[in-house]
Design brief:
This protein has 193 residues and is mostly helical. Helix content is 80%, strand content 0%. The protein contains 9 helices and no strands. α2 packs antiparallel against α8 and α3 crosses α5. The longest helix has 28 residues. The chain is globular.
């Protein structure tokens, strides 16, 4: 459900049959990957759908930010804003322990590895790719997660999940290799300026 936002962008942004094919193949791959046989909670599905909508919005806003602010200032502002919004909760829960070097050092490492580095890569990708291609590429996340679970945690993938990994890999390669996949993002932004 969380991938509905990126896939909606990929589907609605499709201008050619090949674009539509890659978006549908990626969506099918994620569905195959997510089949676990565990009953789903309606509230959880609702929140996952909301997260998908937010993710779609993030892609659209990120593409605009990447086009308008070519250096890291936009990301620095977003990370600072997020830190300020979460600071009251942190102070209420941990108080002065937040200033302890034993807490700050790992917090900085986590912030860089889980936020700054991935968002920098996202903005660079959104600067070079149209949102529809980026939406298809997000389908690689659950596939990579499944492979990491296999390699590091010893989790096993069923045949449909292997088919899902293959589908999202083929869709990602197809979306990037389709002629015009990268040049459109630059052309669209120039026409708006």
């Amino acid at each position: 459900m969380e991938f509905l936002g990126p896939f909606a962008l990929a589907l609605f942004g499709s201008r050619r049959a090949a674009d539509l094919l890659w978006a549908c193949l990626a969506a099918a791959g994620v569905v195959l990957l997510s089949h676990s046989g565990i009953p789903l909670d309606a509230v959880g599905l609702g929140f996952a759908t909301l997260a998908g909508c937010c993710w779609g919005g993030y892609i659209l806003v990120g593409a605009r930010l990447a086009a308008r602010v070519p250096d890291g200032r936009g990301l620095a502002l977003a990370v600072t804003w997020g830190a300020l919004l979460s600071l009251p909760y942190g102070i209420a829960r941990a108080g002065s322990r937040l200033l302890d070097p034993g807490t700050l050092a790992p917090a900085v490492v986590v912030a860089v590895l889980s936020s700054v580095l991935p968002y920098t890569c996202h903005l660079e990708a959104l600067r070079r790719l149209p949102p529809r291609v980026f939406g298809v590429l997000t389908s690689l996340e659950p596939a990579v997660g499944a492979l990491v679970g296999l390699l590091l945690l010893g989790q096993h993938l069923a045949a449909p999940q292997w088919a899902g990994v293959l589908a999202v890999a083929v869709a990602a390669v197809g979306a990037v290799r389709t002629p015009g996949a990268g040049s459109e993002a630059i052309g669209e932004e120039r026409s708006e300026a």
